[in-house]
């Protein structure tokens, strides 16, 4: 075995706790990105709400407003506002942290969720910049694992420099880890 | 086995008899695609087209398929390229393709025999590689000798597993630690006790598609109303229902037994050097190699009847790679007794499974929430709909019976659910009739998350999800603080031990 700390029996309470880690919030400008996105999505919702009315305008000759059209518009508007509010308030709840051996990402206004990915399970890291993100100098970090569906971890709204340095840090750790794994496996083979 | 040194270094074709296999496969495809047309032709229009044309037409079709299968054979080459250390397959009649698999990425080589393969005595060689996006490679028809030779040769290139494989092929007879065969009787028992709902679904789906497609042929003489009237006027409704029920149950059992026997006929497992070799199948034979290190999730299922017969059903989830995501990559061991199951566990997991360190049950809110969703809401809707149609006594009696039944079902589900933690092993139990235990080692976890809905915060309850390369496992509505402690423990184990997950 190579590592310094061996896997002896230990008290559950003495382990490092991921709940107590202080999280780094996302970049402030990310809120603006979310605001713009929510407005666009909201507009789409409202347009969908207006579809029955438009359809009626085009097809019928004598047009009159029915309650069913009003309800449809109302639903569209309510969904538009709700999603915008939830998304924008949600930004403050998101945060991430790097520890020596893993990466923590916390999110959620309604469903509060903490996700942890150990470095020795990350296969590769991608820094992604969309048009909107790039115009604010931000990027999105994607950590790929072998965990199949939903096995990847995505951190949106990190400044470009930060993202690059996180990526470099994690990649460096992955290399270190894989060397360790290989040497342990060789040990096992020799046994 | 002695290996030829120069084998497969130059582009090699498949076995010549493979042309016949190709031909049969293409014909099978054609016939399958045109079944509706053929049936329609026989039933309806047999007089409209003169027979000579039919004969000439099918003759031309045969000829074309024969030429095509010959060309497919001529253009199919496989070889090992020593310069790039890779295995190369070139194929295609009109659109040509070349697939290159680096030898060191080859994970698994499987020999399969479908029914058509059996007819002409050839094997299909399937090559799984580690590259997550690469498509699986298959050589559809080669003779047994070549298949075996190719398999051992390809596997011998895999650097990390090299020792294992040469040993396996060299001492096939000596090194067997354990050979097990499942008897026909076990399979019959299994067929009588498993997957009723699945088979019922299959039978119903079959009948529904059958009637949808061909109802215009068979029922053209009756109008819907006539049929309906015929049904209405008969006074023996309850007898008919009973009759249908009996027929359906025996049909399900029969189909089940046949299905299980067809699938798992002659099932045998042998263990060599900690590697499992599995063979099974009646019409199509499967030949799978399984390494314990690649197991991600192990599911053990048993229902009430099977518990009485001491029968377990095991399902092994291996790594799901990019291309084969939709495909079922699990291997099944359909019938094990408790002793056999424990022996298997000892081989697969290095750790104690006798005494657990810790058990976690769901909070009673797990039951309450599901009771509300599955019992109270449907019952309320039902009452609102039928209130005015039937006597309130009947409605309320039905409503109470439904609530009681659903409540009990949900209570059973709630009671079965357990998260059991062993040293270096996790077990999650769930189910209603079929109780499934999902086992995994903490070092197989790729990603881990704990979550709670905001109103759950003050009651300290939450949900755990473990992502592995063989699928996800989650445990809902239980003590959140215990979950965070457990996840800290598992993270510590993953991060400190540096044990690979594959």
Q: What labels describe this entry?
A:
A: 191 residues, alpha+beta, PH-domain like, 2 domains, 4-stranded antiparallel sheet, 4 helices, B: 502 residues, 14 helices, 46% helix, globular, disordered N terminus
TL;DR?
Chain A is of the alpha+beta class.
Description of the molecule:
The complex is a heterodimer of chains A (191) and B (502). Chain A is an alpha+beta fold and 191 residues long. Chain A is elongated. Chain A folds into 2 domains: 30-90, no CATH class; 94-190, PH-domain like. In chain A, a hairpin with a 3-residue loop joins β2 (95-98) and β3. The termini of chain A are close together. Chain A contains 4 helices and 7 strands, in the order βααββββαββα. By secondary structure, chain B is an alpha+beta fold. Chain B folds into 3 domains: 18-170, Pleckstrin-homology domain (PH domain)/Phosphotyrosine-binding domain (PTB) (PH-domain like), CATH 2.30.29.30; 291-361 and 417-497, no CATH class; 364-415, no CATH class. Chain B has 14 helices and 20 strands. Chain B has helices at residues 18-43, 51-74, 115-120, 144-157, 162-170, 184-193, 196-218, 224-233, 237-264, 304-309, 338-348, 364-386, 392-416, 480-497; strands spanning 77-81, 86-91, 97-102, 106-112, 123-129, 137-142, 176-181, 268-272, 275-280, 286-290, 297-302, 312-317, 331-336, 358-360, 418-422, 425-431, 435-440, 445-453, 461-468, 471-479. Chain B is globular and about 70 Å long. Chains A and B meet through β4 and α4 of A and β18 and α14 of B. β4 (111-118) of chain A pairs antiparallel with β18 (445-453) of chain B, so a sheet runs across the interface. Chain B: Pfam families: bPH_2. Chain B: Residues 73-150, 265-340, 424-476 form the YdbS-like PH domain.
């Amino acid at each position: 075995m190579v590592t310094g700390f061996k896997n002896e029996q230990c008290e559950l309470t003495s382990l490092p706790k991921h709940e107590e880690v202080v999280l780094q919030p996302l970049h402030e400008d990310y809120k603006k990105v979310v605001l713009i996105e929510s407005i666009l999505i909201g507009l789409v919702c409202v347009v969908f709400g207006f579809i029955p009315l438009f359809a009626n305008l085009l097809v019928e000759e004598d047009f009159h407003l029915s309650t069913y059209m009003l309800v449809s518009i109302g639903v569209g508007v309510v969904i538009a506002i709700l999603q915008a509010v939830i998304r924008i308030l949600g930004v403050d709840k998101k945060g991430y942290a790097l520890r020596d051996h893993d990466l923590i990402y916390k999110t959620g206004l309604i469903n509060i969720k903490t996700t942890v990915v150990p470095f020795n399970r990350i296969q590769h890291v991608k820094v992604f910049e969309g048009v909107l993100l790039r115009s604010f100098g931000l990027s999105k970090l994607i950590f790929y694992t072998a965990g199949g569906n939903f096995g990847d971890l995505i951190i949106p709204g990190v400044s470009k420099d930060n993202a690059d340095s996180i990526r470099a840090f994690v990649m460096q750790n992955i290399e270190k880890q894989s060397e360790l794994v290989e040497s342990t496996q060789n040990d096992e083979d020799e046994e | 086995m002695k290996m030829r040194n120069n084998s497969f270094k130059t582009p090699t074709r498949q076995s010549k008899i493979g042309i016949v296999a190709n031909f049969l496969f293409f014909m099978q495809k054609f016939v399958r695609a045109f079944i509706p047309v053929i049936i329609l032709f026989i039933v309806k229009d047999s007089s409209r087209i003169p027979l000579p044309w039919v004969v000439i037409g099918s003759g031309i079709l045969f000829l074309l398929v024969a030429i095509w299968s010959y060309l497919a054979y001529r253009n199919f080459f496989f070889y090992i390229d020593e310069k790039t250390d890779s295995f190369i397959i070139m194929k295609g009649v009109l659109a040509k393709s070349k697939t290159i698999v680096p030898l060191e990425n080859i994970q698994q080589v499987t020999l399969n025999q479908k029914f058509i393969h059996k007819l002409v005595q050839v094997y299909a060689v399937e090559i799984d590689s580690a590259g997550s996006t690469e498509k699986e490679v298959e050589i559809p028809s080669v003779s047994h000798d070549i298949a075996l030779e190719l398999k051992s040769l390809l596997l011998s290139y895999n650097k990390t597993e090299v020792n294992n494989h040469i040993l396996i092929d060299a001492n096939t007879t000596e090194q067997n630690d354990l050979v097990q065969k499942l008897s026909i009787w076990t399979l019959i028992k299994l067929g009588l006790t498993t997957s009723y709902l699945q088979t019922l679904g299959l039978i119903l789906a079959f009948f529904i598609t059958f009637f949808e497609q061909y109802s215009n042929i068979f029922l053209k003489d009756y109008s819907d109303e006539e049929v309906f009237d015929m049904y209405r006027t008969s006074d023996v409704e309850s007898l008919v229902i009973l009759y249908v029920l009996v027929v359906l149950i025996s049909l399900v059992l029969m189909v089940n037994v046949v299905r299980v026997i067809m699938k798992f006929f002659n099932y045998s497992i042998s263990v060599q050097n900690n590697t499992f070799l599995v063979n099974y199948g009646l019409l199509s034979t499967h030949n799978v190699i399984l390494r314990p290190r690649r197991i991600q999730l192990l599911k053990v299922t048993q229902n009430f009847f099977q518990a009485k017969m001491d029968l377990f059903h095991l399902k092994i989830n291996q790594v799901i790679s990019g291309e084969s995501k939709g495909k079922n990559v699990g291997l099944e061991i359909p019938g094990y007794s408790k002793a056999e199951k424990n022996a298997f566990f000892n081989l697969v997991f290095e750790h104690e499974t006798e005494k657990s360190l810790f058990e976690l049950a769901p909070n009673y809110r797990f039951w309450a929430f599901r009771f509300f969703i599955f019992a109270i809401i449907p019952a309320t809707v039902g009452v609102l709909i039928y209130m005015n149609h039937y006597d309130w006594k009947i409605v309320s009696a039905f409503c109470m019976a439904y609530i009681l039944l659903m409540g009990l079902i949900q209570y059973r589900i709630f009671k079965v659910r357990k998260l059991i933690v062993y040293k270096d092993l996790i077990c999650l139990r769930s189910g209603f009739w079929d109780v499934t235990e999902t086992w995994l080692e903490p070092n197989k976890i790729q990603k881990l998350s704990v979550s709670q809905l905001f109103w759950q915060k003050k009651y300290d309850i939450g949900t755990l999800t473990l992502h592995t390369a063989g699928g996800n496992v989650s445990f809902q509505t239980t003590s959140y603080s215990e979950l965070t402690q457990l996840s800290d423990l598992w993270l510590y184990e993953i991060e400190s031990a540096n044990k690979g997950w594959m």
